[in-house]
Backbone:
C-alpha cells in the first residue's frame, strides 16, 4: 500500500539502532483536513517502551492518547512518522498486538472458553495445547467455574477479565489497553488493577495502558507518559519507582501521593492555559 | 398500588393471556351482536356465523386448503429467493463502501416504486404462471431487504471488529467468524418484519393476476358480493401471518440463546 522510500529506510535504520526498545514511536503525528485548513491532533510524539514495561498514557481528553493506542494496534494510522514494534513497522492490525477495549468486546455468541480460544484456533494450534492454555488463563482470572457461560451471564468486571485472558492467551508481543476499567465501579476497578499487576508480573508482558485516572496510572505503571492537548504531545515521562510488589495499601503511602500530586499538577498546568477545553 | 406511577411494569403471564383472550371474546361478541341483531347489512359486514360456515365449507370441499397451499408455496419461493440474494448483498453493502456505492442508491430508487405498478410488467415478462407471483413477492422484498440488512451489518460495533482484528482475523475471516454471527439476531428480526410485507405483495399479485390462491378467492368473492367469503379470506391470511410471526419469534429464541434481547 505504501511506497518504500529513502526516508523509510532511514527510519528503519533508526529502529535497528534502538533494538533494545520493544516499541518505538518516531516523530508520530496525526493531522486532519478540515475545510481548507489542517487540524493537528497529534504532533511529534517520540516514545520508546522497553520489554516488560508497564507504560501508562495519561492526559486530558482530546490529547490523542486513545488515537495513539489505536495506531499501535494498526487500527489507525499516523500521518507523520512511524511506529515500530519489535523492529517491525506497524502497517495493519495483527495478532502480535492484543487489545482490550473500554466497551465490552467479548463475542456474545461464544462461551467464555470459546472467547479465550478464538485467537488460538485461528492460529490452528493443536487442540491439546489450546485446552492447556485455556485452563491456565481461566484459573489466572479465577473464572474456571464460568468456562461454559455466555458473556450475558457475566458482570462487567468478569467480562473484562475474560477480555484480558483472551488477549493474553494469544501470546502477543504487547498488550494494548484502552481504559479497560473505565466503566467499572471503584471496588471492582481496584481488584482488577491488582489482578492486572499480578498477571503482568507473572507473564512478563509488555503493556501500554491508556487511562484518564491518575490514581490508576500511578498504581499500575512502571512509567507514565503525561500528555498535553492541542496538539497532542508528550509533556513528560515519569518513572514510577514505588516498588514492584504493589498492594492497594501502596496508594496511601507518601511516595504514591506525591507522584499523584505531581502528575495532577502537570495536567492542571495545561488546563490553565486554555480554559475553553475543560 | 394506587400511587405507583412507574411505566413498563410487567404483569404475570396468566394475567396477560387472560386480557388477550377477553379482548378476542369481546371482539367476537361485538361482531355477533352487531350482525345477528341486524344493526348492519350483511353485505357490509357478514354475520360471524356465515363467515365460519364459509370457512367450514371451504375446508370440506378442499378449496380453502389448496388455495392456502398455493399461496404458501408462492410466498415461500419468492421470499426464499429474496433472502438468498438479499442477505449476502446486504452484508457486502454494509461492509464495503464501494459495493454500497453501486447497490444502495439503486435500491433506494427502486424501493420507492410501487410494487403493484410492477404487476402488469411482470405479467408481460413472466405471463400469469406461478413465476409471476413469485417475482412480485421477490421485487416487493428484495430491494428493501438489502438496505435493511446493510444497516444491520453497519450496526455491529466497531470495537467488536477491532477486537477481532487484534486477535488475528483478516478481512473475510472477520466477516464470517465475527460480523455475521454478531448480526445473526438482527438478520432474523429483519426477516421477521419483511415476511409480513411479503404477504401483502403476494395478495397484491393474486388480486391482479391469478386464478388460485387466497388473494384470488377474495377477488372472486368481491365479484359476487360475497362478503362472508372476503372475510374468511382475510381472516385466513391474518391467521397465517400470525403463525409465521410466532414461528419466527420462537426460532429467534431458539437460535440465539446467547442474545440478551432475544432471551432476556
Residues:
Amino acid at each position: 500500500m505504501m511506497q518504500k522510500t529513502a526516508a523509510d529506510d532511514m527510519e528503519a535504520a533508526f529502529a535497528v539502532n534502538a533494538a533494545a526498545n520493544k516499541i518505538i514511536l518516531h516523530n508520530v503525528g496525526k493531522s486532519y483536513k478540515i475545510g481548507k485548513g489542517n487540524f493537528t491532533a497529534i504532533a511529534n510524539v517520540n516514545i520508546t517502551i522497553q520489554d516488560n514495561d508497564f507504560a501508562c498514557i495519561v492526559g486530558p481528553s482530546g490529547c490523542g492518547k486513545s488515537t495513539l493506542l489505536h495506531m499501535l494496534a494498526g487500527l489507525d494510522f499516523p500521518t507523520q512518522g512511524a511506529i515500530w514494534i519489535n523492529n517491525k513497522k506497524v502497517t495493519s492490525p495483527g495478532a502480535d498486538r492484543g487489545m482490550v477495549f473500554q466497551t465490552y468486546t467479548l463475542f456474545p455468541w461464544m462461551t467464555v472458553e470459546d472467547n479465550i480460544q478464538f485467537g488460538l484456533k485461528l492460529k490452528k494450534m493443536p487442540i491439546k495445547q489450546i485446552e492447556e492454555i485455556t485452563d491456565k488463563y481461566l484459573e489466572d482470572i479465577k473464572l474456571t467455574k464460568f468456562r461454559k457461560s455466555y458473556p450475558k451471564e457475566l458482570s462487567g468486571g468478569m467480562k473484562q477479565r475474560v477480555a484480558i485472558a483472551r488477549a493474553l492467551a494469544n501470546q502477543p508481543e504487547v498488550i494494548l489497553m484502552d481504559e479497560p476499567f473505565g466503566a467499572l465501579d471503584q471496588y471492582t476497578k481496584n481488584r482488577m488493577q491488582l489482578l492486572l499487576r499480578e498477571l503482568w508480573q507473572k507473564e512478563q508482558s509488555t503493556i501500554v495502558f491508556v487511562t484518564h485516572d491518575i490514581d490508576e496510572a500511578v498504581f499500575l505503571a512502571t512509567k507514565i507518559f503525561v500528555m498535553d492537548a492541542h496538539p497532542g504531545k508528550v509533556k513528560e515521562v515519569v518513572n514510577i519507582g514505588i516498588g514492584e510488589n504493589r498492594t492497594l495499601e501502596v496508594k496511601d503511602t507518601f511516595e504514591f501521593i506525591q507522584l499523584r500530586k505531581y502528575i495532577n499538577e502537570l495536567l492542571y498546568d495545561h488546563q490553565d492555559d486554555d480554559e475553553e477545553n475543560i | 398500588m394506587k400511587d405507583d406511577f412507574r411505566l413498563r411494569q410487567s404483569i404475570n403471564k396468566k394475567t396477560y393471556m387472560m386480557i388477550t383472550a377477553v379482548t378476542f371474546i369481546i371482539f367476537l361478541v361485538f361482531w355477533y351482536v352487531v350482525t345477528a341483531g341486524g344493526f348492519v347489512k350483511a353485505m357490509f359486514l357478514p354475520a360471524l356465523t356465515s363467515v365460519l360456515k364459509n370457512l367450514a365449507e371451504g375446508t370440506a370441499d378442499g378449496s380453502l386448503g389448496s388455495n392456502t397451499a398455493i399461496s404458501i408455496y408462492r410466498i415461500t419461493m419468492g421470499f426464499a429467493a429474496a433472502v438468498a440474494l438479499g442477505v449476502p448483498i446486504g452484508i457486502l453493502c454494509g461492509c464495503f463502501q464501494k459495493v454500497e456505492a453501486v447497490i444502495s442508491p439503486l435500491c433506494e430508487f427502486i424501493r420507492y416504486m410501487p410494487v403493484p405498478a410492477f404487476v402488469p410488467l411482470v405479467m408481460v415478462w413472466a405471463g400469469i404462471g406461478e413465476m409471476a407471483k413469485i417475482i412480485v413477492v421477490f421485487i416487493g422484498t428484495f430491494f428493501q431487504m438489502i438496505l435493511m440488512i446493510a444497516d444491520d451489518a453497519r450496526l455491529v460495533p466497531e470495537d467488536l471488529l477491532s477486537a477481532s482484528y487484534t486477535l488475528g482475523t483478516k478481512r473475510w475471516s472477520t466477516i464470517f467468524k465475527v460480523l455475521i454471527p454478531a448480526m445473526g439476531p438482527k438478520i432474523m428480526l429483519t426477516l421477521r418484519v419483511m415476511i409480513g410485507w411479503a404477504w401483502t405483495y403476494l395478495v397484491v399479485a393474486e388480486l391482479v393476476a391469478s386464478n388460485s390462491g387466497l388473494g384470488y378467492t377474495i377477488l372472486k368473492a368481491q365479484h359476487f358480493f360475497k362478503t362472508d367469503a372476503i372475510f374468511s379470506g382475510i381472516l385466513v391470511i391474518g391467521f397465517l401471518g400470525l403463525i409465521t410471526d410466532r414461528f419466527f419469534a420462537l426460532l429467534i429464541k431458539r437460535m440465539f440463546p446467547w442474545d440478551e434481547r432475544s432471551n432476556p
Q: What stands out?
A: Chain B is about 80% helix and 0% strand. Chain B has two domains: 11-40, 46-262.
